[in-house]
Amino acid sequence: MKDVNAHRKRRAGSRARLLLGAACTVAIAVSSVAVATFAHADLTGPPGATLKAAAERSGRYFGAAMGGDRLSDQGFLTIANREFDMMTAVNEMKPDATEPNQGQFDFRAGDAIYNWATQHGMRVRGHTLAWHGQQPRFWGSLSSSSLRAAMIEHINGVMTHYKGKLAYWDVVNEAFAENGGRRSSNLQSTGNDWIEAAFRAARAADPSVKLCYNDYNIENWTYAKTQGVYNMIRDFKSRGVPVDCVGLQTHFTGGSSLPGNFQQTLSSFADLGVDVALTEADVTNASTTQYAGLTQACMNVPRCVGITTWGVRDSDSWRGSENPLLFDRNSNPKAAYTSVLNALNAASTSVPGTSTPPSTPPSTPPVTGQPGGCTATYRLVNPWSGGFQGEVTVANNGSTALSGWTVLLTLGGGQSIANVWNGVNTGTSGTVSVRNATYNGSVGANASTTFGFLANGSADTAPGAISCTSP
Ligand code: 9MR
User: Fold this and answer.
1) C-alpha 318 to ligand 1 mean position (Å)
2) Which residues contact 170 (CB under 8 A, 6 or more apart)?
3) Signal peptide span per the entry (predicted)?
């Protein structure tokens, strides 16, 4: 508690200083490093000598969390640069940090971490957009309906700033109670659909980033809270609510150590069609058995895409007195480091789509159709072995606004749609129709909107016979 309070006081002081000069959105330039989407797995290659090299053998990442104060800590930066290929900001992208006053965004602290990480070849996990903790003070004085709107505006504002730049976003954090029901909070009091509203807004704001639900104490499959989250994700997937991943924080303490069924939990979530990741791992006294076990569980589940530890050295940890991380206070790797490294190198499954280079997209021109007021253009965003991500741009080339649109496209043999965002589909194979979502049917003159989809099957044949109509 002592450390946490000291940390909060430091934050409050620096926030006051920031506000002195902040009348509107403030941001430093976000460097334009493209989001790397593919690690090329090679399970037959030589063992990796660092955490990231060992993880990349199976197409996974190995991440850490850092606070802004570590940007001047050379000991931290040296290890982070050598060992990790994914970074999470400990506090700097949370709601209180990024929108201290309504509509007044401040991305300086988040951008500083983003820029350092990407300039050192790392990708970045965004943490977090909607949470009962670390909320902007103004959220506390809003009515339920105003809070719901403020949450959506927050998601829009922050995700627009980082659009196309992050690998994952923890859209919603820690929304479940230990009994498997929803945690009571001001966000929950805006209506039980607040989580799906957050995910829908997130997809619309940045279709390129994977959207995660993140929580702690969901590692044990038989635990009520795990089942509560599982049922929500299953429901979301069945109704097309856009969720791409589940983050299991993996804080293992004396009272909640590595459960024997951890792998079952990971594979059960993965079987719903989401990625899973260990997002904030730390283990009391850095037990080598537990660290090896949690790593093996992830390596055995193909859709377990990576592991992040919540800090690098024990001195970085929010639970510092328990020495729960992989490096000691003198920056030396501990025994747990070796057990994790060995388990990463022993991986026998790789992340789907990373083991062979993505096939070269066909060099056919985009397919365009034009009856009835709008045009639809297909673009292949991302192919992998056995699936692909596509995007369709709906353009209004006329002089009056569209008040709704419907796109027809015909998938090739073996292709089927798994998930659509920013649109509502009818059918998943053959000729599929996609109409606008409730929020993007109105397209102004000379304006456009897009919807995206994930499909099973080869990307080598572009969906054809594409047309757009508007009422
Ligand atoms: O590590 C973070 C610490 O510096 C903050 O004081 C604390 C405030 O809530 O949040 C910590 O990070 C938490 C993360 O955002 C969500 N899961 C639990 C983490 C540890 O408390």
Assistant:
1) 7
2) 125, 126, 127, 128, 129, 212, 213, 214, 247, 279
3) 1-41
